[in-house]
Design goal:
This protein has 17 helices and 24 strands. By secondary structure, it is α/β, with parallel strands linked by helices. The protein folds into three domains: 91 residues, PDZ domain (Pdz3 Domain, Roll), CATH 2.30.42.10; 201 residues, 2-enoyl-CoA Hydratase, Chain A, domain 1 (Alpha-Beta Complex), CATH 3.90.226.10; 101 residues, no CATH class. The chain is globular, with a radius of gyration of 25 Å. The strands form six sheets. Strands 2, 3, 16, 17, 20 and 21 form a six-stranded mixed β-sheet that branches. Strands 5, 6, 7, 8, 9 and 10 form a six-stranded antiparallel β-sheet that branches. A six-stranded mixed β-sheet has the order 12-13-14-18-19-24, sandwiched between helices.
C-alpha cells in the first residue's frame, strides 16, 4: 500500500491542552518578579511614550512585548489578542454561529462544496455546487476576496439574518436566499464505520467539548453493527482539552486506574483516575498514532499503553506534554500559560526537550531526514528514560512522544516531485471541483448510495488528462516515470475527494483509508489468531 503524505501534511505549530474553565488572572502568592523588575518595564514604557522620535501604537507594542516574554518561557505559552479569541476557541468549543456551508474559492467565485445537514443553508434550499455571487448586496464573484473576509460576512450572532444571491446551473436568474444564522457544530469525529464484519473504526480529529458525546454515539452505532474490536485513529490529532482526553481514556480503563497526572512548580500533583462508567473496557483496542499526534492524543495513547489495555500502532508521536491554563486578561484577550507537565501512569513525561528553544517544524524534518520515519532502527531512545508498563512490565520510553508498540514506516514511494507539484499548486483540487461541477447530477444518478460508488467508481481518464493539461499550462514539465509511480495514489485521492463532496468526511475516509498503512497493519494483527495478545506481552 502506498502511504499518502502530502495530502494532509501540515506541521503542528500551536498544539494546546487547555482547561475548559476560563480563570481570571490573579496575582500569585509567591511573586517572582521583583519590584525593580516591574519598575524597569514601566520605566521603558514611560520613556517610549514621552521621548520616542515617532508616534507608536501602544497596543501593538504591548502585545509584542507580551509575545516576546512568553516565547522566552516555553513553546506553548501563548498570548491571544481579543480579536482572535472567538476563532481560536471554536474548534475546542465545538460550534460557531453561521449558516452551515463548506466552501472554497474556485475561479474567483465562492463555490458551495457542501451544506451541513440540518443547518440554516440546507433548510432554505441551498445546494452543493451553488456559486455565491452576492452577500448582503456585496459582490463576491470576481473580486478576489480573502476567505477570512467572506467568513466574517457569513458568520454572525445566532438569530440574525444574512441575504445571499447564488448562481445555480440550469437557472437563468440568481436565486435569493434569506438565511437565519444558527449554531453550527464543529465535529470531533471525522469517521465512524465498520472496516470488517467485526472491527469498527473511529477517527477523532481533536479533543473538544463534544468529543466524548460524539465518540459514544459512534461506538453505540458500531456495536449495533457487530463491532467486537475497535481501531481508534488519533493520527494527526493535535490535542485539545485535557478533560476531554481524560474522559475518553476513561472509556477504556477499569475503575480506579490512573489515567494521567499533572504537576508543576506552583501546581501540586493532581491525579486523574478512571471511574466505573467506561463502555469499552474489555474488547480488543488499537490506537493509531503518527508524528502529528500530540498532547491530548498522547495522554490517551500513553494511558492505554501503560496499562497494557491495547496496542499503539504507527510512528512516534509529537512530544507535547505541557499543560496550559487559559486566563482572561483585562481587555478580553487570553493568556494560555504553561503551568504543569503531564505524566503517563508509568511516570513518563512525553514533552520533548525545549531548553534553549525548539523549532518543532525542524524537529519533524530532522526525524524524516535521519530516517526515523522509515526505519525503526533509526530511532534512538535514551536508556535513562525507560519505564515499565503497569500490568505486563513491558519496556516503554519517555522523553519525547509515545513510541508505538508496532512501528509502521512512512511510505513515500508514490510521493514523487511531480505529484507534489500537482498537489501543491492546487491542480488536483481544482480538477476535482471542476469535475463535480460538471458531473454531480450524473454521479448521483449512477451511484445512488455510497456502497455502489465505492465498489464501482473509477477515476475517468478525461479527469486525469485535465490535470496534466493544467500542469502544462503552468509550465510544469511532464515527468512520465514519476507520474506513473504516483498514479495509484492520485486516483485514490481523487476518488476520496469526490466521495467526501458527494457525501461526508466519513465516506472520504472510507476511501482514503485503503492506503492508511497503520490501519491495514492493525487489521492484519487483529485477524491473526493470538497476535494481538502476543504483542501486548512482549
Amino acid at each position: 500500500m502506498k502511504k499518502y503524505i502530502v495530502f494532509f501534511l501540515c506541521f503542528a505549530n500551536s498544539i494546546l491542552v487547555c482547561s475548559q474553565a476560563l480563570t481570571r488572572l490573579q496575582p500569585p502568592d509567591n511573586q517572582s518578579f521583583s519590584i525593580d523588575d516591574q519598575r524597569k518595564i514601566s520605566n521603558i514604557m514611560n520613556a517610549i511614550s514621552a521621548h520616542y522620535v515617532d508616534t507608536v501604537n501602544s497596543v501593538q507594542l504591548t502585545e509584542a512585548a507580551i509575545v516576546a516574554m512568553l516565547k522566552a518561557l516555553d513553546p506553548h505559552s501563548q498570548y491571544i489578542p481579543k480579536r482572535e479569541v472567538e476563532r481560536v476557541n471554536e474548534p475546542l468549543e465545538g460550534s460557531f454561529d453561521g449558516i452551515g456551508i463548506q466552501f472554497q474559492m474556485f475561479e474567483d467565485t465562492l463555490l458551495v462544496v457542501q451544506t451541513i445537514a440540518g443547518c440554516p443553508a440546507e433548510k432554505v434550499g441551498m445546494l452543493p455546487g451553488d456559486r455565491i455571487i452576492y452577500i448582503e448586496n456585496d459582490l463576491i464573484a470576481g473580486v478576489k476576496k480573502h476567505n477570512s473576509d467572506i467568513m466574517k460576512s457569513l458568520r454572525g450572532q445566532r438569530g440574525t439574518e444574512v441575504t445571499v444571491k447564488v448562481k445555480r446551473e440550469g437557472e437563468r436568474e440568481l436565486l435569493l436566499f434569506n438565511i437565519i444564522r444558527d449554531k453550527i457544530p464543529i465535529l470531533s469525529v471525522d469517521a465512524q464505520y465498520m472496516v470488517t464484519s467485526d472491527v469498527g473504526y473511529i477517527k477523532i480529529n481533536n479533543f473538544g467539548a463534544n468529543t466524548l458525546t460524539e465518540y459514544k454515539e459512534a461506538v453505540s452505532k458500531l456495536k449495533k453493527q457487530g463491532m467486537r474490536s475497535l481501531v481508534l485513529s488519533l493520527q494527526s490529532n493535535g490535542g485539545g482539552y485535557l478533560e476531554a482526553a481524560i474522559a475518553l481514556a476513561d472509556e477504556f480503563l477499569e475503575r480506579d486506574r490512573l489515567i494521567v497526572y499533572t504537576e508543576g512548580l506552583h501546581q501540586p500533583r493532581r491525579n486523574a483516575i478512571a471511574t466505573s462508567i467506561g463502555e469499552f473496557e474489555k474488547n480488543k483496542l488499537v490506537i493509531l498514532v503518527d508524528e502529528f499526534s500530540a498532547s491530548a492524543s498522547e495522554i490517551v495513547s500513553g494511558a492505554v499503553q501503560d496499562w497494557d489495555r491495547g496496542l499503539v500502532i504507527g510512528r512516534r508521536t509529537f512530544g507535547k506534554g505541557l499543560v496550559q491554563n487559559q486566563m482572561t486578561l483585562i481587555d478580553g484577550s487570553l493568556l494560555r500559560l504553561t503551568v504543569a507537565r503531564y505524566y503517563t501512569p508509568s511516570g513518563r513525561s512525553i514533552q520533548k526537550p525545549y531548553k534553549g528553544g525548539v523549532d518543532y517544524e525542524k524537529d519533524l524534518l530532522d526525524r524524516f531526514e535521519h530516517g526515523e520515519m522509515q526505519h525503526v532502527d533509526s530511532i534512538h531512545l535514551s536508556d535513562s528514560l525507560t519505564y515499565t508498563t503497569r500490568i505486563n512490565k513491558r519496556t516503554v520510553y519517555g522523553g519525547g512522544g509515545i513510541m508505538p508498540d508496532v512501528f509502521v514506516p512512512l511510505d513515500t514511494t508514490a510521493n514523487t516531485p511531480y505529484y507534489r507539484k500537482l498537489v501543491n499548486r492546487g491542480i488536483v483540487n481544482r480538477a476535482h471541483v471542476q469535475y463535480l461541477q460538471e458531473n454531480r447530477e450524473q454521479l448521483k444518478r449512477l451511484y445512488p448510495d455510497f456502497e455502489s460508488f465505492k465498489d464501482n467508481f473509477e477515476v475517468p481518464q478525461n479527469l486525469l488528462q485535465k490535470i496534466l493539461d493544467r500542469a502544462a499550462e503552468l509550465k510544469i514539465d511532464f515527468a512520465e516515470a514519476e507520474y506513473e509511480k504516483s498514479l495509484p495514489l492520485l486516483k485514490i485521492q481523487l476518488k476520496a475527494l469526490i466521495a467526501g463532496d458527494l457525501w461526508t468526511t466519513n465516506e472520504f475516509y472510507q476511501i482514503i483509508d485503503k492506503i492508511n498503512d497503520s490501519l491495514q497493519k492493525a487489521l492484519e494483527i487483529l485477524a491473526k489468531t493470538g497476535e494481538y495478545e502476543k504483542l501486548l506481552t512482549k
